[in-house]
């Protein structure tokens, strides 16, 4: 895992009224290269069959995917020009684990250019011929273990985190582990040929993960579509006061929030490191006691969004736009 820090993260799911039913991604059941993403190289953490790879292929049909051992390598691949985009999971419906990946955004000057939400279905996989009875342990990405915690306790399996779900499957095969299962995607099951012991292992039937697509240069939301702007706000005062001021700056201008999260490294932390960019684009890392992640409805070009950001800047030490992109309310369903 690239980011093992553990800031306490409070997440307020805002305005869930706009969620939609899951839809089939365009790459499933078709060989079409879709929307001209064929030349894009998209880096992700994991190996083929990882959910992040599925997210990359869903967001950018026909892209070439570039597996990376850890998330930070995917970010570095984009920064160094070895890839055009990186995809990272940032939030799930049932956990606060993925939000830690957001901190990678803070420390790098990549831009969010797209979002994609996937319905995540977990399979319990084991070496051919090994039944549930012989199992002692399960390995997978920490988010997968967290999303399946209750089911795993029922099965009485010890849990061991590894870097990614599909990588867990490859590990079973490479080491011939017969007392261990892996949690991974249906696609990983098909790719690597393990036995499927349980389908739909997730504790909650509704298990959605949102991924962000990052690029070196800012994107543009498609004209005629609703835009979303992601910003980060940091300061030295209390997080609660900052939260209230952000809420007030937005509500006074009729701007809806799609997400509002406070990251706080807690009593043992020494602050959240944030890359502060100067006018020439040079960056310095500075530590702040808390940061707020805010997704606003609207584009950075909208006057009321500009006004709200100016208002927020007047009471905070840092307001940085992480990206302005097309809001995609769809939830892609990979089960079909
Ligand atoms: O390990 C993977 O397959 C990933 O892409 C990370 C992940 C794990 C669980 C849900 C979504 C993303």
Automatic annotation (TrEMBL):
MF terms (GO), sorted A to Z: arogenate dehydratase activity; prephenate dehydratase activity
Enzyme Commission identifier(s): 4.2.1.51
Pathway stated in the Swiss-Prot or TrEMBL entry: Amino-acid biosynthesis; L-phenylalanine biosynthesis; phenylpyruvate from prephenate: step 1/1
Biological processes annotated in GO: L-phenylalanine biosynthetic process
InterPro entries in alphabetical order: ACT-like_dom_sf (IPR045865), Chor_mutase/pphenate_deHydtase (IPR008242), Preph_deHydtase (IPR001086), Preph_deHydtase_CS (IPR018528)
Keywords of the record: Amino-acid biosynthesis, Aromatic amino acid biosynthesis, Lyase, Phenylalanine biosynthesis
Every Prephenate dehydratase domain range: 41-216
Record's GO cellular component terms: chloroplast
Entry-linked CDD domains: PBP2_Ct-PDT_like
Organism superkingdom: Eukaryota
Protein name: prephenate dehydratase
Organism, scientific name: Colocasia esculenta
């Amino acid at each position: 895992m690239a980011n093992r820090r553990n800031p306490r993260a409070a997440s307020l799911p805002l305005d869930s009224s706009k969620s939609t039913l899951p839809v089939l991604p365009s790459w499933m059941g078709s060989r079409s290269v879709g929307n001209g993403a064929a030349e894009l190289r998209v880096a992700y953490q994991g190996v083929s069959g990882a959910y992040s790879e599925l997210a990359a292929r869903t967001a950018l049909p026909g892209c070439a995917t570039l597996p990376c051992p850890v998330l930070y390598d995917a970010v570095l691949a984009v920064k160094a020009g070895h890839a055009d985009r990186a995809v990272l999971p940032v939030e799930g419906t049932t956990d606060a684990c993925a939000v830690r990946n957001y901190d990678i955004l803070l420390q790098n000057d990549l831009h969010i250019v797209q979002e994609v939400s996937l319905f995540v279905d977990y399979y319990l996989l084991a070496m051919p011929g090994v039944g549930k009875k012989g199992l002692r342990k399960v390995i997978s990405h920490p988010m997968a273990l967290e999303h399946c915690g209750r089911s795993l306790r029922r099965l009485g399996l010890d849990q061991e985190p590894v870097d990614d779900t599909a990588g867990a499957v490859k590990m079973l095969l490479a080491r011939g582990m017969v007392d261990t299962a892996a949690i991974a995607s249906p696609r990983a099951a098909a790719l690597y040929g393990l036995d499927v012991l349980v389908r739909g292992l997730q504790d909650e039937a509704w298990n959605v993960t949102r991924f962000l697509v990052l690029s070196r240069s800012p994107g543009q939301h498609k004209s005629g579509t609703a835009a979303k702007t992601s910003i980060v706000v940091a300061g030295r005062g209390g997080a609660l006061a900052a939260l209230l001021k952000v809420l007030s700056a937005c509500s006074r201008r009729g701007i809806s929030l799609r997400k509002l999260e406070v990251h706080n490294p807690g009593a043992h932390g020494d602050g959240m490191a944030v890359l502060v960019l100067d006018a020439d684009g040079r960056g310095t890392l500075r530590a702040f006691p808390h940061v707020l992640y805010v997704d606003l409805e609207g584009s950075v070009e909208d006057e009321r969004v500009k006004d709200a950001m100016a208002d927020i800047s007047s009471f905070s030490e840092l307001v940085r736009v992480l990206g302005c992109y097309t809001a995609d309310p769809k939830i892609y369903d990979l089960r079909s």
